[in-house]
Design a protein that fits this description.
Structural class: mainly alpha
Strand content: under 5%
Shape: elongated
Radius of gyration: 19 Å
Oligomer: single chain
């Protein structure tokens, strides 16, 4: 885990020393992604992947013919827009889950 990269998402840690930031982030990570949360996280990831897959099928089967896009153009749209958006949403969810755990640990 890159603590320097993660610390920029948490301005509430800016006043602390880097070692304290790292320790708090490590504790928050352990709390947020502990084994008792694995099933919830797994289910959430599966549901979001299914939603993304269904939206892609909707795009390919309904919107592509309606807009008159070629197969190559629709593939580029999915690769350049849909796939990065999915990763962005997953990253935001990761940060939110970590932030909730961090707020429990902060004094």
């Amino acid at each position: 885990m890159n603590f320097k990269h993660l610390a920029k998402h948490f301005p509430e840690l800016a006043a602390l020393e880097p070692a304290q930031q790292q320790a708090l982030l490590a504790q928050a990570y352990q709390d947020a992604f502990a084994t008792e949360h694995k099933l919830t996280i797994w289910r959430s990831n599966l549901v979001s992947a299914l939603i993304m897959t269904s939206l892609c099928f909707l795009f390919v089967l309904v919107l592509r013919p309606a807009l008159g896009l070629s197969q190559q153009t629709s593939a580029f749209v999915l690769m350049l827009i849909a796939f990065p958006v999915y990763f962005f949403i997953q990253h935001r969810r990761f940060i939110k889950r970590l932030r909730n755990s961090l707020h429990k640990l902060l004094p």
